[in-house]
Every structure is written in C-alpha cells, then in structure tokens.
Amino acid sequence: MIQVAAFWLFATIVIASAAMVIFARNPVHSVMWLILAFFNAAGLMLLAGAEFIAMLLVIVYVGAVAVLFLFVVMMLDIDFAELRAGFVRYLPLGALVAIILAAEMIFAVGAWSAGGVDLATRAAPVVTDKSNIQQIGELLYTRYIFLFEAAGIVLLVAMIGAIVLTHRQRGGVRIQNVSAQNQRRPEDATRLVDPGVGQGVQL
Amino acid sequence: MTEFFQDFQFLGLPWEWARVTMSYDAAWALATICGILLIALPLMLAVAMIIYADRKIWAAIALRRGPNVVGPFGLLQSFADGLKVFLQETIIPSSANRGLFLIAPIITFTVALMAWAVIPFNSGAVLADINVGLLYILAISSLGVYGVILSGWSSNSKYPFFSALRASAQMISYEVSIGFILIGVVLYAGSFNMNAIVKAQEGFGLGIVNAFGFNLLLFPLAVMFLISALAETARAPFDLTEAESELVAGYQTEYSSMSFALFWLGEYANVLLMCTLNAVLFWGGWLPPLNIDLIPWFDIPGVIWLFAKILFFFFVFSWVKATVPRYRYDQLMRLGWKIFLPISLIWIFLISGWLMVTRYGDCRDSERVYISQMTDNETGKTYRGGPPKNSWDGICRSKIQGSTKVSS
Questions:
Q1: Cα separations (Å) of B304 from A167, B113, B279, B285, B321?
Q2: CB-based contact (8 Å) between A63 and chain B?
Q3: What pTM value is reported for the model?
Q4: What is residue B141's three-state secondary structure?
C-alpha cells in the first residue's frame, strides 16, 4: 500500500515537473524543475529495487550535472521577448521532432505488445540474495570488463579533449610558486636593526 | 527501520499499539514518524546547545567570556536568540525571486536533517538500515549546495551571488575528494552499510583498537576527511562563502527572521553530521575506543561513546575556527584539486593493492589444487576438465565450499 502510494506520488511528480521544465518561463526555474524530476526518478528506481542506480543518479545528475546547468543558466542575461519570438520561429521544427518522437514511441510500444519479442525479457528477474552493488560489480568486472574499460577510455579522451580545447597560454600572468612561498621565512624578508641616535638606517 | 525503533520502550508503545489496532502499513508509517521525531527533536536541541558551546569555546580561546547572561552560564542564549529571530519580521527584498528566496533556507535545513536517517547510534539503532547508506549520505550532502546557490541567486544582490558562486565551486571540489576518501573506507569495510562499517572496525587495530584511523593506510585519509569536512560545511578556515570582510554575510545577507534561522540551524546540523561521520567512519562510531573488557567499557551504551566522539570532533572544529586564519580562495582550490584529489586517488590504489595482497591475494603453491574431475552428488554426473596448462591454474583449497573431497 505504501509502495503503491509512493509510486503514484513519485510518478506524478516526475511527469508534472518534467512538463514544468518546458513550461517554466524562467530558465532557472526550469533547471529547478529538472532537478525535482531527477530526484523523483531516483525515488522510482528505489521502488524498483535499484537503490545503487538511484543513489548514483542523485550524486551524479543532481549533485554535479544540474549544478553546472544552474551555474550556466544563472549567468545568462535572458531577454524573454526574444525567447518568445524564437519560439514561434522554431515551432514547426519543434513540432516535427515531437511528432517523430511520439510516433516512434507508439511504434515501439505497439511492436512490444504485439508479442514479437520474447516475453521473458520484458521484466528483469529480481535477485534478492545479493545486494545491488555486488550484482552490478560482478557483471561489470567480469562479463562487461572490456566495454567498461572502453567507456573509461572514452571518458579519459573526452576529458583530455576538454582540457586541450580550453587550455590557452596567457601572457602577463604571474604564477605563484606555493612551495617557494611556504619556504620563505621572516629572516629572508626582514632585517632587525638597532640604529644609534642620529644614525640613519641603510636600506 | 530496525528493531531498536520497534523495541525502544517509548517507541515500542506506539508500534505495538498500532500493530494490533491498524494495518501493517499504517503502523509502519506511524512508527517511522515517531522514529524521525526521536532523531530530529534531540538533534535540534543539540544544535542549539552546540551553537552555545561553539561560542563559549571560541570566546575561551580568545580570552573572552562569551555568552553568560541568559540563564545559568548563559546556557539559554541560543533559545533567546531563537525567540528573537522568531519574533522578527521576514523581509523579502522587492527585486528578489520570491518563491526561490523562501525555498532556499528550507532546502538547506531539510537536507541537513535528511542525512541523519542512516546514522547508526548504536548496534542496530538506525532509522533506515539500507545497504547503500554511505552513498545516501553522499547524495544528500550533494543536495546541500542548492540551498546556497538558490539563496545567492534569488536575493538579486551582488554579494550573495558572489558567495553562491564561491560556495558551489568549493562544495563540488571537496565532494570529489570526500568521495575518494570514502571509497578507501568502503574498501576496508567491504560494505556501504553504516552499521557494517562500524562493525568492521571492532578490534581492527591489532585486535585492540576499535578504529579504522589506527591503520597507517587509513590515518592520512582520516586527516584529509576532517579537513575536507571543514571545507564542505564552509567552516573556518574555509568560510569564504560568508567572509565578512569581503562579502558582508555571504549568501545570507538578505535574509532575516526565521528564514535566516533555518540557514543557521541547517549549518550547525551539517557540522554535527560531519563530526558524526568522522566518528563513525574512522574512529569506531558507537564502539568503545579499545576492544578489551578490563574496564566494563562495553556496558556503557554505545550512544554515549558516539556522542563523546562527536563532541570531541566538534571541539576540534571550534578549535580550528578560533585559531586558523581564513584561506585565500585560490589556496582553497589548490588544496582541493592539486593536493587532496591526487593523494586520495593514489591512496585508493595503495589500499586496494594492499587488500589484494593481504585479503584476496592468490594462495601459496602448496595450497593450490587443480580440479580435473568433479561429481555432482545429486545427479551423479561427472564433469571432467583438461590437464592444467599454466602454473597458476587451479584454485585455493580454502575456497572450496561444501562437502568436497579433495584429492590432489
């Protein structure tokens, strides 16, 4: 009963907030609705017994990706009139994409329920004797080890690419040498003198 | 929900009563709500007292008296402050984004309370005994940044916005190294469950000391975690988000009344949470420090040990606040990305390598057996394998389970 209530709660909020992502006028509000959608999707995954994926969804998407979205969107200076003009201009293209997506979804669901696919593969069997993390780890590091490593290499290349693209040599920047700063002692910079009366100090 | 919250004498009452009078679901919901209150209300009281303690410690180190007027020794100072902000007017700047401006402190406060659901207060005394407890804490603490960002942006004011940008960059940077540090702990404990992590520390150091921090490989991680915890909660010396000499009061500048108080409470609840994590992950949680029964240490309830450790770490936090000058922002970023991140990464390699050698390593040649023929007792079928090809083929004798006769 509680599970069913939780499911309806999460599912309703996911759909409502996903709709609000597109309907919200203010982009910052859009991102906040998106975060709410992520969060409730994680709740749905918890109900499905995939607690590891749920936690990773929150950590990666809510904790890192959405923060970057928010960062970028907050910096934007948004002219709402211009946005609305663009809306009308791109309406046919957007409608086309929406129609294609809807048609594909209808085809997919139709083909699925027509029974062409093996019925046993529709729902994944739930293994209860092992924890989620253990199951994923066992598959990932044995059967899918090469795919896993390939994904790692792709990410590494992407990271290096991003660094190469944004790295530039700037002139006129004085880079701090922190170890030199830490090694600097009072004796290196100051001098104690005890001049007599009428005598100056040699600078 | 574990047996503690069902058997507990105050709480067992509603649970037992509810079990006979209503459905299981309603009883479960009622008992869970009681459990939440049992954690959240003392936590709020603890936050009020810890603010007082913080001010007293800080004053003592600065050779001042600190709060000493309201109540005996000024003990009621936090309650007087709370009453004061409660009676103030909530001012919302006219150009602020009203909804987000009000939601931001609520997010901060709620997130600070949510993480306590998986903290083990004693053996089995944990509200949600989930097997991804540590990941849950990471997920919840990564939510904390939203309260700060939103308050900074929605205030529509320069200084709060600068503060929000600083805070989000700072929290994201240190979350990365905290994640790696936690992986080191998880590798040793072999579980993400908080209770299992505490239990793995029993007699961890030579069978005597109940703490991961005793291990030479884990001690540097414990130190880095303490420092990262300071940065994650934006406490001094990393309190650049509310650096009063630069940013007025940071993201809280435009807040007043209860919305300000929620930030305040959430901040200290987060500090307490980080102290608790230090105690639970590295210093034995609810276990007594030593695993010997010379003194009747195990008769003292685990909650007392946990609270003592939390208070010790809170004292360290206050001590640092009172003595260490504030970092510059570039120094903060350097510490996070160029020092903690590489060291914690290297430490993951070291720890997993050490565990491979000591726990999961290959066995000695004398222990190695090669199974050339195997008979299933139930079906009577016999399986045959080819002859061994390499010198490392075969498995350890100790890893063979069940009633198996091994003939080499």
A1: 53, 21, 12, 10, 25
A2: yes
A3: 0.79
A4: helix
The torsion angles phi and psi of B332, rounded to 5 degrees, stand at -60, -45
Closest C-alpha to B48, from B268, B360, B366, B229:
B268
- 3-state SS of B354-370? HHHHHCCCCCCHHHEEC
Distances (CA, A) of A151 to A148, A154, A163, B176, B359: 5, 5, 18, 20, 29
- Distance, in Å, from the CA atom of A175 to the CA atom of B193, rounded to the nearest integer, reads 45
Residues of B with CB under 8 A from a CB of A: 23, 25, 28-29, 97, 100, 130-132, 135-136, 138-139, 142-143, 145-146, 149-150, 153, 165, 168, 172, 175, 192, 330-331, 334
Can you read off the two tokens belonging to residue B154? 């929605």
Which ipTM score applies to this complex? 0.75
The distance of B401 to chain A (nearest Cα, Å) reads 18
Report yes or no: B258 and B85 within 8 Å, Cβ to Cβ.
yes
Alpha helices in B116-249 (DSSP H): 133-154, 158-189, 194-200, 219-232, 244-247
A28:B97 CB<8 A: yes
Contact B179, B138 (CB under 8 A): yes
Measured between beta carbons, the chain B residues lying within 8 angstroms of A64 are 142, 172
**Interstrand relation of B382-384 and B373-375 (parallel, antiparallel or unpaired):** antiparallel
Distances (CA, A) of A137 to A70, A143, B9, B283, B375: 32, 10, 41, 28, 30
C-alpha triplet B302, B307, B310: angle, nearest 5°: 130
A93 touches B at CB < 8 Å: no
What secondary structure letter does DSSP report for A65? Answer: I
Which long-range contacts (C-beta less than 8 Å, at least 24 apart) are formed by B52-56? B52/B77, B52/B78, B53/B314, B53/B318, B54/B268, B54/B314, B54/B317, B54/B318, B54/B321
**What DSSP assignment string belongs to B70-98?**
SSGGGTTHHHHHHHHHHHS-----TTS-H
b/e B197-236 (16+ beta carbons within 10 angstroms → b): bbbbbeebbeeebbbbbbbebbebbbebbbbbbbbbbbbb
Nearest to B374 by CA among B407, B398, B328: B407
CB-CB neighbors (< 8 A) of B149 in chain A: 67, 70-71, 74
Q: What is the pLDDT of residues B27-61, one digit of tens each?
A: 777 777 888 888 888 998 999 899 999 999 999 99
Residues 6+ apart with CB under 8 A from A60: none
What are B139-177's pLDDT values in tens digits? 888 888 888 888 888 888 888 888 888 888 888 888 888
**Residue B237 preceded by cis peptide, ω within 30:** yes
Q: CA-CA distances (angstroms) from residue B8 to A136, B15, B31, B43, B266?
A: 36, 9, 11, 18, 28
Smallest Cα distance from B112 to chain A, Å? 15
B100/A29 Cβ within 8 A: yes
Burial class of residue B172 in the structure, from the number of CB atoms within 10 Å of its CB (0-12 exposed, 13-18 middle, 19+ buried): middle
Q: What is the largest CA-CA distance in chain A?
A: 107
pLDDT tens figures, A2-22 = 788 888 899 999 999 999 888
**How far away is chain A from the Cα of B81, in angstroms, using its nearest Cα?**
33
